[in-house]
From TrEMBL:
Keyword Amino-acid biosynthesis: no
Organism: Chromohalobacter japonicus
Keywords from the UniProt entry: Hydrolase
Matching InterPro entries: Nudix_hydrolase (IPR020476), NUDIX_hydrolase-like_dom_sf (IPR015797), NUDIX_hydrolase_CS (IPR020084), NUDIX_hydrolase_dom (IPR000086)
GO MF annotation: an example: hydrolase activity
Cofactors required: Mg(2+)
Domain of life: Bacteria
Protein's name in the database: ADP-ribose pyrophosphatase
Family listed: Belongs to the Nudix hydrolase family.
Domain called Nudix hydrolase: residue spans: 15-147
Hydrolase found in the keyword field: yes
Amino acid sequence: MKKSLSQPEMSPFNHPIPATIAAVIRDGNVLLVRRRNPPDANHWGFPGGKIDFGETVESAALRELHEETGVQANVVKTFTAVDVFDHDDAGHIQQHFVLIAVLCQWISGEPVAGDDALDARWFPIESLERQDLALSLDVVEVAKMAAAL
């Protein structure tokens, strides 16, 4: 929920890209994936990705969750959004994603990395800040928000 300091040159093609993230909480743990691709390659974050044309936010969250982890879930509610800015080496914005967070209730499956995830596993929410993990922006805050719901 940070603001960007460097603004891109304006063109009719510069626009935020809507994407979704699935926040799955189970027994005090949150499901995270280590991303294979930019933005945030090699960082731990929620399973998620771009919303396909004609697809609902909730359907996209469940699809991405299953593709990246093999986990099945039900949607509980959409609860927040996070801006993510992908910058080049000079600090200019290359892409702007709006990640729409969807709280999901675990149904079945144990996480196995798939699609564009390098790894997938459960982490105790209470110890996320103390672990030596490269976390994507706002993961701790969104995980705590999801757990409170």
